[in-house]
Amino acid sequence: MDHHQLIQQFKEKAQLVSATIHPEMTLETALTTAVKYCQKKSSCQTSRPWESPPGHQDNGGAREHVKTIALPENHASLETLLSPMCSSRGIELVTKNFRNHARGMDMGITFADYGIADTGTLVIGCDGEDMRLATMISDIHVALLPQSRIRSTALELTDELEDMMAAPGAYTAFITGPSRTADIERVLAIGVHGPLELHIMLLKD
Amino acid sequence: MEKKTSQETLKAYRKRIDTALDNDFLRTAMDRFAVAYKEGRKNAFKDMDTDDLIEQVAILKKKAIENRTALLEEFTFQAEKKGIQVHMAADAQEANNIISHIGKAANCQKVIKSKSMTAEETHLNPWLENRGFKVTETDLGEWIVQLRHEGPSHMVMPAIHLSRYQVADLFSQVTDSRQDAKIEGLVKVARSTLRDNFIEADMGITGANFLIAKTATMGLVTNEGNARLATTLPRVHVVLAGIDKILPSLEDALKVARVLPRNATGQQLTSYVTWITGPSQCTSMETDKREMHIVLLDNGRSAIADDPLFSQVLHCVRCGACANVCPVYRMVGGHQMGHIYIGAIGLITTYFFHGRENARNLVQNCTNCGACKAVCAANIDLPRLIKEVHARIQDEEGHPLKSLLLAKVLKNRKLFHGLLRSASLAQVPVTGNTPYLRHLPMVFSNEHNFRALPAIAKVPFRDRWKKLKPRIDKPAMKIILFSGCVQDFVYPEQLEAAVKLFKKGSVDVEFPMGQSCCGLPAMMMGEKEAARDVAIQNVKAMRGFNAQWIVTLCASCASHLTHATRDLTKGFLPDKEIKDFIQRIIPFSDFINRFAPETVLPGGKDLASHAPKAVSTAGKGKVTWHSPCHLCRGMGVRNAPKDLIAASGQTFVQAEEEETCCGFGGSFSANFPAVSREILTRKLDDAENTGAELLVTECPGCVLQLRGGAVNQERNLKVSHLAELLAGTVKTSSD
């Protein structure tokens, strides 16, 4: 299988598990797409849907809920690009202490280290707490994956994975689609404790 | 919901099962699941060599268990180097005690858990709650059963026994607000409500799917994401895992991960596989590092590992597939099909982890159909181990009278056959109400009204043999016919049909009078010694006949003789004789299909020309097939009988679940008639759905069950043995 076919397989497998694929992106178009999408989405859904909606508790509900995007600190290189995109749309860009937002954020943007084609899986080093939270507490997780980082199988990645996992405190995530459950009547439901949506931006090399 | 008690009698257990059988939701859910699972698994393994992947798991787990002492040492060394506090727990109480002490020492009050069967095994939740901790399960299914004060009913889908309406009612109480019975919404209730628990928790407890010795990395395979939150937000992380979870390297873990989700839920991979190497960053700690503990639980595992037969129990990767395909599980659900661990593996581990009083009834609730073995992610010989556990329990507790009687009678072939003959004269119970002989339990019991019972033949096959034996001038080959008890004493006509076919093919047939019961009924009732006695009798009975094959029309006999004889007779008979005996065993259809074209039946594949009567007597000629468990899975014979049906000129129509058990299972159907009845009804529905008027099979036990059910339920379905179809002797009447 050549690399083009691998990319194809990765796309197909990731879509099968309800991930959304955005192919042939530059970093800038990827971020723009993400921010625009965040603007459109309904606000953070981890609040209790059966209680009054967030932002409506004070002042008779006039104030709009401010949306938040989590960008972990180790992604500082993206901040200069992302910051103006967010502020022009009234979105708050948060770059640290995601624990303070653990009830939920609207979007988390992170790089992915590898893609695994045969299962449509992302491999993401999540050693930092904010990396873990950005990929978990956000309604939408946007993963930036350089196409060249797609490999055929997890076994083929064994050496690289062992390197990632070697250091004390290492926390490595395989992420395959958004969080899901079939615990009630075996009916598939997307978005349990993790993201409701997973968007994978395939970056051109 | 009725609770399990530790000293439950078989009668009480049966009652609990009857309640489950009356649960319409459970029944429908289980039926759907059983069918959907097979399809899902097939798709998940598409284009892969499933057998090879599973074999790799079996081999690597075996090596890891054999090498466990060194691996444990390496894991502990690496873990401590990485800053993990490692604790060894000899049993459940010790593990729980360690964990509650960790909690107290770290001043924890609120505990969140992600799903852990090991924590279920140790009954960790009540232990912690009794010591003042607030424990919240965060896996959706586990949370639901926790709120209902139940245990899980499936290892992967803990709340599979509940409907959305029940969950909606429950969540309405929890949130104090009416919740609709819409699954998407109910899931969001859990998402929102539990998020607070994650945020407030001091301690997260998880299990582990893998513990990697080389790097002290733990692996967690999950879908919902709760394990990631439980290992990120709380300041203390405790892992509770069996020592059997240790693997040498990541490569091994990845090989297991390739099979585990595919086999469990038909997913190519779960949403999350999380790899944690020691305490990770935690900003709510002054040290910026989480406090991390691993509690390694033995609880009988070392003893299992040292047992040459049972060590394979530890190869289990907890995928739950053995429940997914179990015909009994499908009928009764997980609360009735396990104590803590569920499905076939649960029947076995209950004995080791939770004691024989909890295992005593469970181990009998098995039809011995072998579906679990065929699907197992680690190739564990589950049906055999279930029988061995049963035998052990009887050895430890004393054998019940009915099983003792069976053993005694079987040891003496003449007495055994004499009793059967007298039963044929009187047609009355020989031993009161006991289901006395496996192959003939129903004549002795009044609990079997769900199927019409066959009468014992006036003259058994063995007494007809002298007259029947064909005189063949130039035999093409010589075979021995092994009849088994049911055909000999209940269905001699099936054997006669076969003899007719053999004669046509110039096959010389011998019927050694020294042959007895195959011994499977004894094994099914936990009478291993009796099984050994008859095994030895049977091998000896074949001496001096110089036949090429030992052909049997009973798939159960074929499978038992093939797979059990070596272990039973080793050391009692010469190795060469045992090997020679086993190699010559062949099921009827396999024999005819292999040799018919050349020798057995002139005309070979044109069997149709020999069976015109069958066409006329079987109605419109649409025939479907029930594959006996011990033929398809036991002997690996799948296509031969169907090829023969087609070659006989009939229109073969395939049933959707042709390889699903009919529910006979010998003493199983005597012990659990209600479950047997329900499995049978499903089976007959499936056969009838094909539009066939004749259901053919190749095991007298299956014939007995299926025909009895078809007659009792007044179905438009005749049942016959393949030999009768081929010989053109299918009866027009139903019995």
TrEMBL record, chain A:
Pfam families (UniProt xref): LUD_dom (PF02589)
Residue ranges constituting the LUD domain according to the UniProt record: 7-203
Protein's name in the database: L-lactate dehydrogenase complex protein LldG
Automatic annotation (TrEMBL), chain B:
One example GO MF annotation: metal ion binding
Organism: Desulfocicer vacuolatum DSM 3385
PANTHER family: LACTATE UTILIZATION PROTEIN B (PTHR47153)
GO biological process: lactate metabolic process
All residue ranges annotated as the 4Fe-4S ferredoxin-type domain in the record: 306-334
Entries under SUPFAM superfamilies matching the protein: 4Fe-4S ferredoxins, NagB/RpiA/CoA transferase-like
Cited Gene3D superfamilies: Alpha-helical ferredoxin, NagB/RpiA/CoA transferase-like
Keyword annotations from UniProtKB, A to Z: 4Fe-4S, Electron transport, Iron, Iron-sulfur, Metal-binding, Repeat, Transport
Protein name: Iron-sulfur cluster-binding protein
